Amino acid sequence: MAEPIDSYKTISQPTEEVLYKEKNSKFFGYAFPIQHEDEVKEIIDGIKKVHYNARHWCYAFQIGTEQVYYRANDDGEPSNTAGAPIYGQIQSFDVTNILIVVVRYFGGVKLGVGGLITAYRAAAQMAMEEADIIEKTIDKNFKVRFEYKDMNNVMRVIKEKDLKILNQMMEMSCEIELSIRKSEYDQALEAFVPFYEVKVIEATDEGYE
To answer: In the prediction, which pLDDT does 17 show?
Structure first.
């Protein structure tokens, strides 16, 4: 059986502005790391304040790993001449959790459908070439609840499995929230099975029980 995918590529920080020129039109490209769609409007509003005289602010974004959500926006350009070629660069560089924006200043000469596609793709590609692409792991979280007397056993498993401690409450009754790469998750849970008084609580989409 294939190993579950537990890593993805994204960018570490917003890129510097890049500029592509074609027949007096100027195309400024930017790339931003994002986690939620809510961030998109705020970023574009900020770019509009910088480029308030521009004609178009076109963009594409993708969020997610196993379940991918994306959008491409032509912002008044002919259909599929801006957002789609920008999104094509997100796919080409195999990245997610990212927003690419290309701002156009019209130079007085129409570029045609093919010219627009080439220009928006080139500006998006230039932005991605400026980006610091990094790999991140997809992690899963869970909690262990136990009595203080089981502390040594729990801490030994945490050390052996290299589990990341997210939160902990150490009293007579203890609780630790842990994180591990998705591909190593099942083995981590199994390591606690011999200690029957240690209760493992798995996270769901709604949180914990």
So the answer is: 93
